[in-house]
Amino acid sequence: MESNNVLEHFRDFPDPREDNRRHMLLDIITIVLCGCVCGAENWDDIEAFGMAKQEWLASFLELPHGIPSSDTYRRVFARLDAQEFHKRFFAWLAVINPRLKGEIVSIDGKTVRGSADTAEGKSAIHVVSAWANKAGLSLGQLKVDDKSNEITAIPELLESLDVQDCIVTIDAMGTQKEIAAKIREGGGEYVLALKGNQGTLQEDVELYFKGASAKELQKPPFLYHRSFDKDHGRRETREYWVSDDIQWLSMKEAWKGLTTVCMVRSQRALGEQTTSETRYYISSLPAEAEVLAEAIRGHWGVENSLHWVLDMAFREDESRKRKDNSAENFATLRHITLNLLKKEKTCKRSIAGKRLLAGWDTSYLKKVLGAG
């Protein structure tokens, strides 16, 4: 399907209800999406939104029995096939997001804390998300299986993404040989953080950089880049050293496409307090310090532009949706909503501000819905 209208991708969505189909499935999905755009956080909010906007909704929805109740939304979203819901999201995304060469795709996990149900012995769902830094869009998310972890979920998410000509960044949890190979097989490059969970790899890279004197670090094979940021009284200096001299690395052949190693030293000053940190990375990129620096710095986009926004603007961690597929389906819906709000450029307000405006002004809500 080539339509950039997100609702068209749900028009023939399989209806999970065997009986009690008084309300059209597309009507239900549309009202929930519109309510989410306008700031609704729970099923009662969705019902109230529908009642308040019934005349407007009736101008383009069938609504054979009026506005559904909160119980209807709750019941339907609990039963919707979560994998199919993801599939429709990815199909819409492929239309609205032409891939940018050199796009930095950051992958990271997040726990939706409010989805835990201690009474039922159900833990909170954990999702792995992908964020396109240059496009400023969510590329999707995948629930981590209850008996699994991010290591198995990341390859599944990568299966759904087109990473050709992109740079994929992942924190240390996802620094796995199989994940590196999948990224390269998909035509992408990788920048992977190191920690003590890859045997002696981190130790070897750390010793390599520490074994070089300050004078040696200033000349080949080392390339250097420095950046400085200042914001709200915080000052941060980052120094990057990159090298493609890795013949000494005994396990280099085990990592498909491994070309460079990188050391990052950051120093943050806030008032009189100063902290420093040193991190290490492996990458399939050539030894270009500024390119590596942009990718490493860009990885925080998934935290700052996706996870933080989901928590602050969408109050995701406070969401109490728990029944069956509800939490997973609504998590996907938030990503759809965020993308719609990001794509709408005429309003310069924050995401929270855009949601308020959409709730007040149906003409702006129509702009957001058509932003794909």
Question: What is the fold's blueprint, element by element?
Answer:
Blueprint: H1 25-37, H2 43-52, H3 54-57, H4 70-79, H5 82-96, E1 104-112, E2 125-132, E3 137-143, H6 150-160, E4 167-170, H7 177-185, E5 189-193, H8 201-210, E6 222-231, E7 234-243, E8 260-270, E9 273-283, H9 289-298, H10 301-312, H11 326-343, H12 351-360, H13 362-369
Parallel strand pairs: 1-4, 4-5
Antiparallel strand pairs: 1-2, 2-3, 5-9, 6-7, 7-8, 8-9
Helix pairs in contact: 1-2, 2-4, 4-11, 5-11, 6-7, 12-13
Explain what this protein looks like in three dimensions.
This protein is an alpha+beta fold and 372 residues long. Among the domains are: 6-88 and 324-369, no CATH class; 186-288, no CATH class. The protein has 13 helices and 9 strands. It has helices spanning 25-37, 43-52, 54-57, 70-79, 82-96, 150-160, 177-185, 201-210, 289-298, 301-312, 326-343, 351-360, 362-369; strands at 104-112, 125-132, 137-143, 167-170, 189-193, 222-231, 234-243, 260-270, 273-283. It has a 9-stranded mixed β-sheet with strand order 3-2-1-4-5-9-8-7-6, sandwiched between helices. A hairpin with a 4-residue loop joins strand 2 (125-132) and strand 3 (137-143). Helix 1 crosses helix 2 (43-52) and helix 2 crosses helix 4 (70-79). The chain is elongated and about 75 Å long. The two termini are 14 Å apart.
